[in-house]
């Protein structure tokens, strides 16, 4: 019932990983001690995810004209056996989204001027993915899924300051995700996700236009376990 330090070494094949996981689970079933529990956890996946959001709002509002470079930070894990080719993943992350727009203002005596302003939408997202990979600790992977989100705050940022505009947006959002990446070693992986929104984010009583979120994320994941 001895498990070596190779549990945390990169480069294990799927077969080696599967065998080690079976041994760890069997040992834990026979002896649910704290030590055996830790050995199972070392073969699970819990990752810290962070990255850059290239975010936009698109739809019927013509004033949104530029993307914004923002960020996200969160955690992800695997809900099914990590040695399978197809694994079900879940996560939670704080995601800063939104867009830039032209704010037109009329000037005394006629004419108008415009300035670049920003809408910042801060979400708590809960991505659910199906990931395909041939090797647990190294190699390419592909993924797809859904991303529900809860709006935490919304700000309109102009040169005059910030205004709370959360009441103008719906609290719930839903997007689809497709992505791909590369697991460099057991600890570190990188990837890109594209997540177009499916739902109109505007409340109809405040804005008749229909707009949706769109986010492309360049991301890195560091496995804590």
What's a concise summary of this model?
This protein has 225 residues and is mainly beta. The chain has helices spanning 14-30, 34-41, and strands spanning 46-59, 64-66, 68-78, 86-106, 112-125, 128-133, 139-158, 161-164, 172-183, 188-196, 211-223. It has 2 helices and 11 strands.
How would you sum up this structure, described in words?
This protein has helices spanning 14-30, 34-41; strands at residues 46-59, 64-66, 68-78, 86-106, 112-125, 128-133, 139-158, 161-164, 172-183, 188-196, 211-223. It is mainly β and 225 residues long. Residues 1-10 have low confidence and may be disordered. The chain is built from two helices and eleven strands. Helix 1 (14-30) runs antiparallel to helix 2 (34-41). The longest helix has 17 residues, at 14-30.
